[in-house]
Write the structure tokens for this entry.
Amino acid sequence: MNLRKNKKTMKKGIIKTFLLLVLTLVLLGSLPAQNSLSLSVEGAVTYALENNKMMRNAQLSVEESQAAYRATLLQGLPQVEARLDYQNYFNAMAYLGPMTFTFNPTSNLNLSVGQLIFSGSYIVGLQMQKIYQEITEVNYRKTDIDIRAQVMSSYYLVLISQRSLEILEQNVENMEDVIEKTRALVLVGILDETDFDQIALQKTNIENAVKSAERQIELATNLLRMQLGVNAQTDIILTDDLFSILAQSNVNKTLQTPYDVQNNYDFQLMVLQRDISKKRINMERAKFLPTITGFYNYTEKIKKPELDFSPKNVIGLNVNIPIFSSGSRYFGLKQAKIQYQSVQNQMDFVSDQLSIQEKQLRQNLKTAIELYEAQSENIELARRVYQNIYRKYEQGVISGLDMTTASTNLLQAENSYIMAIMQLLDAKTALDKFLNQIQY
């Protein structure tokens, strides 16, 4: 009897365990999934190029322009049409002298083949469509490098924000240590209660800065999420370290990279716009030329009339010769020439503007390098000053005001150093983007 009871108890336990396991799986399956991405800078760029919405639209524009070019091209190939008709004259009659004719119902199946032989507008239009296709391809490459630069800047911003938070949290820990020692010095009468209050106030200010830094990290991460094309619930883990990125950035190589305006995508787009304007001149000129088309018609009489004199097969040519348009074609050509000159002037202006921009970007990078070097020295100096003042403060030689001032100065120096790194990386990215030399 005991053995049977034990078996029943074991079966009930197994069933309960199984039901509990099923319930757990159901509950876990009903929870919203939390995606997670671990990305290096290069991985973030690659992921964005595959998922960014703007990149997808740029690719669709290229495909659309290719389809438009093929559609224009095929207009010059043979066009075939079929037409079926039926006519009923309600037994109407016609009299020709002593002869009487009845209009019988008729039905015809007509097959038409047309071929464009010559059209200046078609030839120029096809050339213009080809240029439009090149424009979308340049825009695609421009979007590609824009997204690379944006993702890199967003990645750096998240790292900078995280580093700023780490600095603030470290300062909070240091202030807690200072508060404990200040409390002890106040108790033994070495320091005044005011010194303790000043240190406590400094700690509160830094804690508020920590909360602000946490919000800044979320804002920077959301910006990166948008660049990557992921939703707001995706957890992003950055695997590259800020200082390793800085060590690998060869700013001198960027400064030494020569500038060629022909490699700039904005200038390339202006060149293509000029080519379009030139083709518009040819388009207006083509309006003075004739258009020649050939055709072949075949008609199968399904229901023949009583008298039928029309042949089944017809072949011929159509020549459309423009003779007089009251001057509209002349002034259309003149307008196209003026537009071409305007675009040419605009292209020269863009070339000069890009040359100035290139010099400014190089100067910005040089300034960022100098600022980074200066802040690197300042941070070391600020840390040494803080350590000296902290030792004196422990001995009761200086007041809490001096201590809070030293802490504030160190925090400002650390923030300035981090901002100098950000400015250096952004300046390098901006020049690399301008020169089409994005590293990743």
